[in-house]
Amino acid sequence: MFDGPLDVLHGGERRLIGAYLVDTGEGLALHDCGPASSLPGLRDALAARGVDARDVRHLLLSHIHLDHAGAAGVLVREHPELQVHVSRVGAQHLIDPARLEASARRLYGDAFDTLWGELAPVPEANVRIVDDEVIGLTCFPTPGHASHHVAYLHEDGTLYAGDAAGVRIAPGRFVFAPTPPPEVDLDAWGRTLDELERRAPRRVALTHFGIAEDPERHLRALRETMHEWAERVAHGMDEQTFVAAARADVRASDPEEVDVYDRAAPYWHCFRGLERYWRKRAEAAAE
Ligand SMILES: [Zn+2]
To answer: Is 276:243 a contact under the CB 8 Å cutoff?
Structure first.
């Protein structure tokens, strides 16, 4: 049985961050959990499905960025039985989130606390490093947005994609690649898209936000936008022009949704990550 996203109402806003309730052979699981600041919203969304957070046995994390996994430590503190599944590299940052927090504070400044809330460590005893199979779901690496990102494919054909399949705010149609600094790798992401296409999911469950029921078109559109936006930055477009062009792209497809897309994955983050990606590539080539 498949259900749509649990809207955690990040910052009180709809359709920014979605978690998913997944029925597995080993009990109820959540895919991603949002940040600690939106835990009340997550609880309410679970309650609306008749589920208490204590009934959730497993947390399947796509990656450890705060909008996906920030609440993990607080959830475990409140529900000490919870098993947290994450990639090996991600696990280190859950157990000791100091570096993750420092890097996020550099990006977000004073807005950090309001946006994300507490970033509590996850006790090592609760952390499970993912393998090819995780509580009955197929799990595989999906680097690009972050090098430690993984996706989970359920036998019902649902791909729990995290950020690997881009940002598309349902019912919008536009798809773009969230490319925040510092880890974006476009070559790796291209291979990840090959892999997602090869696995031919029936539907794609996106953290930002909702279900894509047209996976083939969706992944093709993501590839096109990723290429186009990357080229703009490669050819020297400045941040202000890039953001205006991104807004125009989204407006042409989904005029009502330009600001929601921006709040889910800010266009200026996309610029900064791409700018850094090309700069590092040029520096490496010059050595
Ligand atoms: Zn992320």
So the answer is: no
123-176 pLDDT, tens digit per residue, is: 999 999 999 999 999 999 999 999 999 999 999 999 999 999 999 999 999 999
Is the alpha carbon torsion for 44, 162, 146, 277 positive or negative?
negative
Distance 145 CA to ligand 1 centre (A): 6
Q: How far, in Å, is the centroid of ligand 1 from the Cα of 60?
A: 14
How far is ligand 1, taken at its centre, from the CA of residue 146, in Å?
A: 7
CA distances from 201 to 92, 162, 196 (A): 30, 14, 7
pTM here is: 0.96
Give distance in angstroms: CA of 268 to centre of ligand 1.
14
Give the distance (Å) from ligand 1 centre to CA of residue 184. Answer: 10
Chain-centroid distance of CA 101 in Å reads 17
Range 6-286 has CATH code 3.60.15.10: yes
Taking the centre of ligand 1 as the mean of its atom positions, its distance from the CA of residue 282, in whole angstroms, is 24
Beta strand pairing status for 27-31 and 203-206? Answer: unpaired
